[in-house]
Design goal:
single chain, 7 helices, two-stranded antiparallel ribbon
């Protein structure tokens, strides 16, 4: 009897270890490849964010990863139906500015049909203020950067099991802007940042999402609020978040849609 119980115990331990190992392997799925992906980079708007410098930096990396890259400084590219239908991912860095109805419809339809969208800072979340439908796609909107460029702030990895954040630990950003944002509470949040009373006492302790992912229709959407200056991405962890998010967003057309809705105010 003792031997039977002993072997049963050993067997159960083995099963548990195997299941844990499998679960870890599942979480550790590799970040997708960009080889052969068709990527459209669109830049412009307020020149203070150096959209041309950002685009050059990211486009060089995309090409080194094997992607087919098209670059445009005009929102008119969105009405080129053939190009948009063949695009796997759009990377947008266009602060402020205005988008026409037909340009927005071209962008919106592409994303709803499976083209991914990725971007950062004001280049994605401080764009086209007159278009509420655009803000609906992004899942968040810039509100303020208290103090402008500040000496430093902390980034907290909120979901360390996601492939985009896996292996990245909390880190510090220096001499740049910290975005205070209004957010769709259904986003899947990847990283956050908290505020002090140094600039505005009433936001002391406020925690604001810094990076998230979501879907708009069939298209994956990735956002990161870091990126006031392209040099921000000299910080290793910031560059990893951006590039992994880009890779994730490029896969909409090649994977079954995930359920990423994370309702903050769901019923208990």
């Amino acid at each position: 009897m003792f031997k039977t119980n002993y072997f049963l115990f050993v067997f159960l331990i083995f099963v548990c270890i195997t299941n844990i190992s499998c679960a870890q392997d599942k979480e550790a799925e590799p970040i997708p490849s960009l080889v052969g992906k068709n990527i459209l980079m669109v830049y412009g708007g307020w020149e203070g964010h150096q959209p041309d410098v950002f685009t050059e930096k990211v486009s060089k990396w995309l090409i080194s990863e094997g992607a087919n890259v098209t670059i445009s400084d005009s929102l008119g590219v969105y009405i080129q139906e053939k190009l948009m239908n063949n695009t796997d991912l759009i990377i947008l860095y266009y602060t402020q500015g205005n988008i026409t109805e037909d340009q927005f419809e071209g962008l919106n339809n592409a994303i709803k049909n499976g083209t991914g969208l990725a971007g950062c800072h004001g280049g994605l979340a401080d764009s086209f203020h007159e278009s509420q439908d655009y803000e609906y796609i992004i899942g968040g909107q810039w509100v303020s950067h208290p103090g402008g460029k500040i000496p430093s702030y902390q980034v907290h990895i909120y979901d360390s099991n996601d492939p985009i954040t896996q292996g990245i630990t909390d880190f510090e950003m220096k001499n740049t802007e910290q975005y205070y944002m209004h957010i769709d509470p259904n986003n899947k949040v990847l990283a956050t940042t908290s505020f002090t009373k140094d600039q505005h006492y009433w936001i002391e302790g406020a925690i604001i999402p810094l990076s998230w992912k979501r879907y708009h229709g069939e298209g994956r959407v990735f956002y990161l609020s870091i990126g006031h200056d392209p040099k921000d991405f000299d910080t290793y962890e910031a560059w990893q978040l951006l590039t992994r998010g880009i890779k994730w967003a490029s896969e909409s057309k090649y994977h079954v849609k995930e359920n990423l809705l994370k309702p903050l105010y769901s019923k208990n």
